[in-house]
Design brief:
With about 170 residues, the protein is mainly α. It has one domain: dinb family like domain (Four Helix Bundle (Hemerythrin (Met), subunit A), Up-down Bundle), CATH 1.20.120. The protein is built from five helices and no strands. The two termini are about 20 Å apart.
Length: about 170
Amino acid sequence: MSEPGEPTGNLGSEAAHWSAFLDYYRMTIAGAVTALPVAEQRTTRVPSGWTPIELLSHVLHMERRWFVWGFLGEDVADPWGDWTVEDPWDVAADPSARWQVADDVTAEGLAARLEEVGARTRGVLRDFPMEAAGAPGPRFPDGPPTLRWICQHVVHEYARHAGHLDIVVELGTA
């Protein structure tokens, strides 16, 4: 799979702008992981121990946490399913806690699930104004942020992780 081009030019509305960049980062990360040999998808190259397939799982869960569980306020089965602990904000209780992917899960399967999450996100961006605050719920007990803020946060998280993945892929081919 070739790397997608970064969105440029007039992308339309603010929601269309965010949607295009989220699509770009989703495709960049999924494409990079699925292009790796299966053994490399599950090989760590960093001291923290994460693998490319675990990163793919993480961004899938991350986007779902922010838009479906956080903004829409919908119940999400196992919102922290990418972690080995129930509450990753309490990793001090278990320093070995990190991302996880079962042996029978494939990068292609995760990429397909990520695209499903992306479709939900595109629907949110189509159906809600950027100033809308998310629904109250367990994700944001002190009050949810606006859709605009969530978009900015998620794009930043994707960008950081895409950079991490670039380095890991480079280390694997060195």
